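Retro notes (design track)

What went well: tokenization of the new backbones is finally stable.
What didn't: we kept losing track of which sequence belonged to which structure.
Fix going forward: every design gets posted as structure first, then sequence, in one message. First example under the new rule, 147 residues:
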């Protein structure tokens, strides 16, 4: 963990940032942050599919960018220490969505590695952690690979 992450500028922020938070940190407009994420100038990933999918940013990669380091360098997975299968609540906490949004994204195939345990409409969703890690590490096709 960098000094900027742990004790400085980013200490009060969660591990996964939203566009407005990155805009505040970098003193840019939200649309500029999104445009730079789309073009690969900012390390980001999209959780979901289509135009409604929201950009998310790993705090440690933004810290590396601020410090002048390589924001796309090989880093341990954000999901290190998570079990091999995650619940919707765990996924919601990491991606900073509410539980209902995660369930809806699972149902539409917008999050990789989603599967139902058991049959029927009320069967609970679960997610393969390694599939979610791939989404985060590849940026879902946005910008340079950050594996």
């Amino acid at each position: 963990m960098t000094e900027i992450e742990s004790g400085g500028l980013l200490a009060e922020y969660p591990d996964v940032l939203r566009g407005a938070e990155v805009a505040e940190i970098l003193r840019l407009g939200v649309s500029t942050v999104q445009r730079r994420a789309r073009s690969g100038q900012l390390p980001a990933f999209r959780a979901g599919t289509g135009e409604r999918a929201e950009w998310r940013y790993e705090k440690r990669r933004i810290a590396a960018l601020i410090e002048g380091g390589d924001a796309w360098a090989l880093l341990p997975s954000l999901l290190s220490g998570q079990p091999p299968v995650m619940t919707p609540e765990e996924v919601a906490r990491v991606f900073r969505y509410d539980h209902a949004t995660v369930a809806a994204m699972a149902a539409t195939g917008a999050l990789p590695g989603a599967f139902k345990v058991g049959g029927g409409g009320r069967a609970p969703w679960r997610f393969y952690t390694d599939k979610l890690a791939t989404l985060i590490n590849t940026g879902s096709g946005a910008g340079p690979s950050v594996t």
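Added context from the reviewer: The radius of gyration is 15 Å.
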